[in-house]
Amino acid sequence: MVTIKEFPKEEYLLKGHAACAGCGPSIALRLLFKALGNKVIMVVPACCTTVIQGPYPYTSFAVPLQNMLFEATGATCSGIAAALKIRGLEDITVVGWAGDGGTVDIGLQALSGAAERETNFIYICYDNEAYGNTGLQRSGATPYGAWTTTTPTGKKERKKDMPLIMAAHKIPYVATACPSYPVDFVNKLRKAKEIKGTKYIHVLAPCPTGWRYDTSKTVEIGRLAVHTGIWALYEIEYGRFRLNPPSDRLIDKSKRKPVREYLAMQDRFRHLTEADIEKIQQWVDMDWEYYRKLASSECSDLTLHGKI
Ligand SMILES: Cc1ncc(C[n+]2csc(CCOP(=O)(O)OP(=O)(O)O)c2C)c(N)n1
Ligand code: SF4
Ligand SMILES: [Mg+2]
Asked: What's the pTM value of the predicted model, to 2 decimals?
């Protein structure tokens, strides 16, 4: 376990990058490099990160990076991983880094194929819960009730549960994270780097521009997502489900803050009715009943993986 004081001083996301002020995904990017250093090859489809990285010939990334079509991140990572294997360059980590639109919607097929082929790479979905780069349209990861430019009265459908979809691929490592918990995220990345095969990490990354809150509140919003239980920090290692701190202390509903506190901080939820808020609270409580079962001793190894 690395502590925050032991994070390396080197920065591979350079100054002058083009993210909005308070951008959660850019904090996650910085942490990614703190965890993995520069022996990485990044594959990045169209998303806010293609803006953050800067216009050619300038770049804010001090690591090799391949931009790729929206739908092809997983396939590209498979190709690069195969080439590195043939050349015996096994100490380089291939990282697919894509937004929620590029993961839960458009890139899902290629990602699923890469996982089924047991491609040796880490795939990270940074989830700002909308298509940020093109002006904030709804995605499959946008939560119920949220305003986006294509859901002006609030999205009517629920968020797709992508981490559990990836767990169903029986890959060796699935985890959730949030940049408000940097030590948790960095240690998960370091663990993922040591495991062979496909590793998937889904990062809830608050976006002040899309979620409509003050740019100084990004870390606070991420913490509230976790403390209300809207976002649970967990990992599934070879099928074994484990809640991570502080989520492991939140199974008891009385320990969780009401979801209202999280929703009230963001103008994208401003129009919600009392009935909407109650519905969201009930869904969160149901999710936690499921997490409780997954984390219980009789159920923690769900034969999701069935490692022999
Ligand atoms: C096949 C295809 N469809 C649409 C686009 C246009 N496009 C570029 S970036 C983007 C939004 C990406 O959203 P997401 O993956 O959530 O990343 P974010 O911008 O939020 O970081 C879209 C729709 C595209 N480049 N390719
Ligand atoms: S729109 Fe959101 S995710 Fe995209 S750069 Fe701005 S703050 Fe970051
Ligand atoms: Mg997005």
From this structure: 0.97
Distance from C-alpha of 211 to C-alpha of 221, rounded to nearest angstrom: 10
Q: Which residue has the tokens 């509140």?
A: 217
User: Which residue, by CA, sits nearest to atom 20 of ligand 1?
Assistant: 132
Comparing CA positions, the residue from 239, 199, 236 lying closest to residue 111 is: 199
21 with 213: CB under 8 angstroms? no
User: Quick one: which of 159, 145, 150, 160 has its CA closest to 111?
Assistant: 160
Longest dimension (CA), the chain: 59
How many Å apart are CA 289 and CA 51, to the nearest integer? 40
For the segment 260-268, the average pLDDT, to the nearest whole number, is: 98
pLDDT value of residue 302: 56
Strands 173-177, 198-204: pairing is: parallel
Atom 5 of ligand 2, nearest CA residue: 19
Question: Domains in the chain, please, with CATH?
Answer: 4-295 (3.40.50.970)
Kindly state if the Cβ of 209 falls inside 6 Å of ligand 2.
yes
Q: Which ligand is nearest to the CA of 105?
A: 1
Distance between CA atoms of residues 117 and 198, nearest Å: 9
DSSP 191-210: HHHHS-SEEEEEEE---HHH
- Rounded distance between C-alpha atoms, residue 306 and residue 308, angstroms: 6
Least confident of 237-246, 272-281, 298-307: 298-307
Q: Which of 246, 261, 238, 247 is nearest to 291 (CA)?
A: 247
Per-residue pLDDT reduced to its tens digit, 145-192: 999 999 999 999 999 999 999 999 999 999 999 999 999 999 999 999
